């Protein structure tokens, strides 16, 4: 009976995570569509660049080319996205009731918290593994639009290419949810993150082709879905493992989740910094009609070899990740037994007080 309840609870938790990530990716898809289509209709003209264009021209040209319609397009897009953001925040605030814990735990400092969570081996391996894989996909997402515009020459199609990535990610989340329940989460990590590698290689080696680019974009979206879903699906298993190993230390779930978000944002910042510095050193010209050959080479590295290397490093870390399906189910069984023992103890205590 306990094992049956445990399995049911796990399925419900994983299903809730899948629904949440589907809505999150869908929101990103809507934001990408709004921003891309509105701004794309009033895209600022590119700046002619060449050996005859000096630094003074580059400083003056942007001011000349940015016109009122372009500014208005960005203002309209930001206004629409802000409105959607406010509506979603109101739905969350009015529609979700917080369940407060009966047990009150003592507050913990930042350094105490990070020492506790990073001292738990499975959590450290999970965070480090997804730190590298997340950085790989963030490099790909952050530079793919520039890669399509300049290296592949699809300047007028990159909004649609980004839409294909996010649409395929939205559609692929239910598939990955089924896959992880059928074959296990570690298997889903390996298959999901490596499925994009052949396409990343082909988009760099195959001559510029719009159809191939759309195929690669669809494949990238499928892997992005796995990158969105699997970390949040595996994180509760790590928390359960911590509870089993530390039964006297309860109520610290928020620390695990908050530090995971911190490391995710850290990866985003590193990705942005690496991309910006790399393109700046290569001589990237903002809104240039063409870019130097060094920029094309840099973009190829940022969307293919660099993500592939980071994915390999992340998967090597995952080899030592100890929580498989058998251990996960065992942890849930032990937690249910602990919960039943606590209920029995509270019942006995109440009966004694009544007597």
Provide the β-strand percentage band.
under 5%
The structural class is: mainly alpha
| Number of domain units | 1
Task: Name the CATH superfamily classification.
Answer: MFS general substrate transporter like domains
CATH architecture: Up-down Bundle
Q: Which CATH top level class fits?
A: Mainly Alpha
Indicate the radius of gyration in whole angstroms.
24 Å
Percent of residues in helices: over 70%
Distance between the termini: 32 Å
Looking at CATH, which topology would you report?
Growth Hormone, Chain: A
- Average per-residue pLDDT, rounded, comes to 78
Following the backbone from N to C, one meets helices and strands in this order, namely HHHHHHHHHHHHH
Q: What's the count of strands? A: 0
Poorly predicted sequence stretches spanning 5 or more consecutive residues: 1-6, 51-65
The major β-sheet equals: none
Key terms:
single chain, 355 residues, mainly alpha, Growth Hormone, Chain: A, 80% helix, 0% strand, disordered N terminus, lysophospholipid:sodium symporter activity, transmembrane, MFS_trans_sf, membrane, disulfide bond
């Amino acid at each position: 009976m306990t094992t049956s309840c445990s399995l049911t609870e796990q399925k419900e938790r994983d299903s809730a995570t899948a629904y949440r990530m589907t809505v999150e990716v869908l929101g990103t898809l809507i934001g990408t569509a709004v921003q891309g289509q509105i701004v794309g209709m009033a895209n600022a003209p590119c700046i002619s660049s060449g050996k005859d264009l000096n630094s003074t021209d580059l400083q003056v040209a942007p001011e000349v080319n940015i016109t009122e319609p372009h500014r208005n397009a960005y203002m309209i897009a930001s206004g629409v996205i802000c409105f959607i953001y406010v509506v979603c925040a109101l739905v969350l605030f009015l529609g979700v009731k917080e369940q407060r814990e009966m047990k009150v735990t003592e507050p913990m400092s930042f350094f105490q918290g990070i020492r506790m969570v990073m001292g738990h081996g499975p959590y450290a391996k999970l965070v480090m593994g997804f730190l590298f894989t997340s950085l790989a996909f963030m490099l790909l997402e952050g530079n793919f639009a520039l890669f399509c515009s300049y290296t592949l020459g699809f300047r007028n199609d990159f909004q649609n290419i980004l839409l294909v990535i996010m649409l395929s990610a939205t559609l692929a989340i239910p598939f990955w949810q089924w896959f992880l329940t059928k074959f296990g989460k570690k298997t889903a990590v390996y298959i999901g993150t490596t499925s994009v590698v052949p396409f990343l290689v082909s988009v760099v080696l195959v001559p510029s082709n719009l159809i191939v680019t759309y195929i690669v974009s669809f494949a990238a979206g499928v892997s992005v879905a796995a990158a969105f879903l699997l970390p949040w699906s595996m994180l509760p298993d790590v928390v359960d493992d911590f509870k089993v190993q530390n039964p006297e230390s309860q109520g610290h779930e928020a620390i695990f989740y908050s530090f995971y978000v911190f490391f995710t944002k850290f990866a985003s910042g590193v990705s942005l910094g690496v991309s910006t510095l790399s393109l700046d050193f290569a001589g990237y010209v903002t809104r240039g009609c063409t870019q130097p050959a060094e920029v094309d080479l840099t973009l190829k590295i940022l969307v293919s070899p660099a993500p592939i290397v980071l994915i390999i490093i992340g998967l090597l870390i995952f080899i030592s990740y100890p929580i498989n399906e058998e251990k996960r189910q065992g942890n849930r069984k032990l937690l249910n037994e602990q919960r039943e023992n606590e209920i029995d103890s509270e019942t006995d205590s109440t009966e004694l007080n009544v007597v």
